[in-house]
Amino acid sequence: QVQLVESGGGLVQAGGSLRLSCEFSRSSSSILAIGWYHQAPGKEREYVASITSSGATSYAETVKGRFIISRDNAKNTVYLQMNSLKTEDTARYYCHADVTAYPYTYWGQGTQVTVSS
Question: Which residue would you say has higher pLDDT here, 22 or 101?
Answer without folding.
Answer: 22
